[in-house]
Write a structure and sequence with these properties.
With about 350 residues, the chain is an alpha+beta fold. It has two domains: about 290 residues, no CATH class; about 35 residues. Helix content is about 30%, strand content about 25%. The strands form two sheets. Strands 1, 2, 7, 8, 9, 11, 12, 13, 14 and 15 form a ten-stranded mixed beta sheet that branches. A five-stranded antiparallel beta sheet has the order 3-4-5-6-10, covered by helices on one side. Helix 3 packs across helix 4 and helix 5 packs antiparallel against helix 6.
């Protein structure tokens, strides 16, 4: 039997920063969507027994090669059932500060109730990834888009970013991609029909400003995100030139912190001395320095669990070689096999 618990996460200023989810399911059973790994930096994303993509990390560790398996317009079993107009309207009419917490709870409930998910046992965190001012030279169009987690007062949770040029094409998807880890790529799992009525409806919602966020799964081995739900919403945003919102789901591990007592005492003594010398010493600065010094909450770092299902490096290479040969796309095959940087 599958169970889960969630709770809201807040930062030091009591601002909502995400949702914490504990998933309890039999450890022996794999979810429908899962990652396989093997030696020599090889990976496969599987839907039951069907590969959705193959990937391998470059020896330079600056990026990875991705080989996508063409899929039909829709997966056989979607992790999240279609969002209807009532759900869209209900969330759009809720107070702005409540929209993301409600969407996070909505997606988690849908995933766990649908039983067609990718959530393996353990701790997960759902966090927003929102349009932000780019740190890079401005570029016109979606390629110039930039997204990041909102600023916060230290929650010790993973922070995410993505750039528009890292959004892979799902209308006419390429088979082979070089994933530059600096871009935060968004990898779709199926193609999008540009003439679909649902796409037209989502484009209307994008123009209205009521487009629901797109659900992503962070895959640590690729420093990229897999689109779990919202392929058509993402395409609608691209077509309308409207920056979308995202929710990133990631499994996390807690790393305990043991502050140095001697350092704590030195900082405390220094602060008390400054406060005594300067009666107008800023109270907020004083308190923040103390909090940072004595904060022993664990840090949560993102990691992606994978099952050791790839028999050997030779088997992975033979499978990718056969697939790319069938596709007539062997231009980068040797770079993929040898894990050379693009």
């Amino acid at each position: 039997m599958q169970q889960f618990w969630w709770r809201d996460l807040k930062d030091l200023e009591d601002k909502w920063v995400g949702l914490s989810i504990e998933v309890n399911r039999p450890k022996s059973s794999k979810p429908l969507l899962y990652l396989q790994s093997g030696n020599n930096g090889r990976m496969k994303l599987m839907l039951n027994e069907s590969p959705l993509f193959w990937a391998t990390i470059a020896t330079s560790y600056y990026g990875a090669w991705l080989v996508r398996n063409p899929r039909p317009v829709q997966l056989e079993s979607s992790p999240v059932p279609p969002i209807d107009s009532a759900d869209v309207q209900e969330h759009f009419e809720s107070p702005v500060q409540e929209r993301f917490p409600r969407w996070c709870r909505y997606f988690i409930n849908q995933l766990m109730n649908n039983q067609a998910d990718f959530l393996y046992p353990g701790h997960w965190v759902a966090r927003p990834l929102l349009p932000a001012v780019s740190r890079y030279k401005p570029v016109a169009g979606p390629d110039g888009w930039y997204f990041s987690t909102p600023a916060e007062a230290s929650s010790h949770l993973p922070n995410w970013y993505a750039r528009g040029e890292g959004i892979l094409d799902n209308v006419q998807p390429h088979t082979v991609h070089w994933l530059d880890w600096d871009l935060g790529h968004l990898i779709g799992l199926h193609t999008v029909d540009p003439l679909a009525g649902r796409l037209k409806w989502w484009r209307k919602k994008a123009r209205e400003g009521s487009l629901p966020p797109i659900l992503l799964w962070y895959v640590g081995g690729l420093c990229s995100y897999v689109v779990i739900d919202g392929h058509y919403r993402l395409q609608a945003a691209l077509d309308e030139g409207v920056k979308p919102d995202f929710i990133v789901l990631s499994s996390t591990k807690a790393q305990q912190i043991k502050p140095c007592e001697a350092t704590q005492q030195r900082v405390f003594s220094s602060l008390m001395l400054q406060n005594a010398r300067n009666p107008k010493f800023n109270v907020h600065t004083f308190n923040q320095a103390l909090i940072n010094t004595f904060d022993d909450r664990p840090w949560h770092w993102a990691g992606t669990h994978a099952w050791a299902g790839i028999p050997s490096d030779q088997a992975w290479c033979a499978e990718v070689t056969s697939f790319l040969t069938e596709q007539g796309n062997t231009e980068h095959l040797q770079d993929i096999i040898k894990r050379c940087e693009y």
